[in-house]
Amino acid sequence: MARKAAIIGGGVIGGGWAARFLLNGWDVGVFDPDPEAERKIAAVMANARLALPALSDVPMPAEGRLTFHGTIGEAVDGAEYVQESVSERIELKHKVYAPLQQSNPDVLIGSSTSGFKASDLQKSSPAPQNIIVAHPFNPVYLLPLSRSRAPRRTRHTSWKRPCRS
Question: Which among 31, 44, 50, 149 has the fewest CB atoms less than 10 Å away?
Fold first, then answer.
């Protein structure tokens, strides 16, 4: 059974994360209220399908399955990792975390923030230990690097889970 990641926010960065996971065999559920999200992610995927295999000396794994969802809860159902890539507004990020953590309370959430500390993201969260900063280098699907940051109250093992894959 394939592993599953959820992407919340399907713009350039979210689409890049989706491509990274999909082309490495993970299933991906996406939530983005933008009616153009599917088209935008399809464009990123087309670029990634051409570029990423050219960098590898070994065959790529079978591509995961991409699904789009009408709610955050549907997108994160069954996910072992969530990458939040919404606009850089703290109130929006907090608004996203509430239903996300209600639907999948123990899931690790990485935020593609470049301007907020993990402790800012964790405020008012029922499970602050599950929120980290995971800001990627761009394009996400080509550069397997992410600046990850977790404050002291984050469980040591929880934020290293995605690093094992």
Answer: 50
According to DSSP, the β-strands at 81-84 and 108-111 are: parallel
How many separate helices (H) and strands (E) can be counted in the chain?
A: 5, 7
Token pair, residue 164, equals 């094992």
Q: Domains in the chain and their CATH numbers?
A: 4-164 (3.40.50.720)
Phi/psi region, residue 25 (left: phi>0; alpha: psi -120 to 50; beta: rest), is left
3-class SS at 84?
Answer: strand
Nearest to 41 by CA among 89, 3, 9: 9
pLDDT digits (tens, 9 = 90+) for 43-95: 999 999 999 888 888 899 999 999 999 999 999 999 999 999 999 999 999 99
Q: Look up residue 21 and give its two tokens.
A: 């996971």
Residue (of 45, 52, 15) closest to 30 by Cα position: 15
Amino acid in position 22: L
